[in-house]
Amino acid sequence: MPDVKNDALPGQRPDQMPEPDRLGAELSDAVVLFHEAIGSLMGLSAADHKALGILGREGPMSAGELAERTALTAGAVTGLVDRLERAGLAGRERDPGDRRRLVVTASRPGDPRVAEAFAGLGAAMAEVTAHFSPDQLAAIAEWVALTSEALRAQAAAIAARREA
Amino acid sequence: MPDVKNDALPGQRPDQMPEPDRLGAELSDAVVLFHEAIGSLMGLSAADHKALGILGREGPMSAGELAERTALTAGAVTGLVDRLERAGLAGRERDPGDRRRLVVTASRPGDPRVAEAFAGLGAAMAEVTAHFSPDQLAAIAEWVALTSEALRAQAAAIAARREA
DNA sequence: TGATATCTTTTAGTCTACTCAACCATTTAG
DNA sequence: CTAAATGGTTGAGTAGACTAAAAGATATCA
Questions:
Q1: What fold is seen in the domain A45-111?
Q2: CA angle A91–A31–B20, rounded 5-degree value
Q3: Entry's SUPFAM superfamilies (chains A, B) (predicted)?
Q4: In angstroms, how far is C15 C1' from A76 CA?
Q5: Would you give per-residue pLDDT tens digits along chain B (164 residues)?
Q6: A4 close to A27: Cβ distance less than 8 angstroms
Q7: Which class is domain B45-109?
């Protein structure tokens, strides 16, 4: 069974890992690789990309909330949003209800190369899907959900231990 | 079926995505989150973490090769290896055959917290595995392999288009 | 209304990691 | 054996992004 745990474990080369771990490590690497490729295509640093991900996932939020979610200071968030805005990836709007507040919204990237990249991945994934029966796909979906949860929980545990 | 393509696509919120895409995005996010947690636990920047990943995956290599693989200059690699060495994550050795060359080797992290984190993930994943039959696990393993390949291919395509 | 609190931006200073170029050490070629 | 080439390090200078603190704008409360 696949498993992601060895991805960042140096000192053990892929060809020495048990098969399931190797697969997990490869998936993890591939995800990160794709992330990086998209990021560099957009001209974003990892931190900016992460912030954009938060915005995309959780929807528009105020600068202060974004600061909290990214663990940055308010000043740093101003610069962050500047960069995203300049790249055409996010927008600033004043909150009509409270005009001190700022609402930062992720906008769909206008860059056609980015759209193309996602379209390419979509097509490739459609092909992957075609290899499996509905039952198998259901199992895969469940595995993905459980694995995501496990990864999140571990990440949270690490962060918690870090605080202590 | 799961699909990773929307992960970095802002402008579409998770609750508006089709189910399979949402799952893929979540897995992708979770992988990245875990990566970051481990990285911060080791006190590594994203770039350092990436370099360590290359070393772990491809085995020991010379500083020059590492420079090429990371797209950094020679000087920057010196600093990079300094940091990794200081953190106890990599070692420098002179190549006995050509004593100008340096062989950089990733070493298993001595930090018990890192080992603990990986052990925790291993246990969690074992539990996930227990939910599935051997046939299902086989399908999952295949999906993971195919998806990794697709992600890698897309990342490579992006990089190639970028050069042009 | 005036005082105070909240949210963001600005400014000044710092830190880190990078590039480029000069510099050692070693190897290879003439 | 010297001259040129190769591999890595060192040092100067630079750029980007961060923090902290002051400032600006708006809101809330008495």
A1: Arc Repressor Mutant, subunit A (1.10.10)
A2: 75
A3: Winged helix' DNA-binding domain
A4: 15
A5: 333 334 444 445 555 666 666 777 788 888 888 888 888 888 788 889 889 989 988 999 999 999 999 999 999 999 999 999 998 899 999 999 999 999 999 987 777 888 888 889 999 999 999 999 999 999 999 999 999 999 999 988 988 887 66
A6: yes
A7: mainly alpha
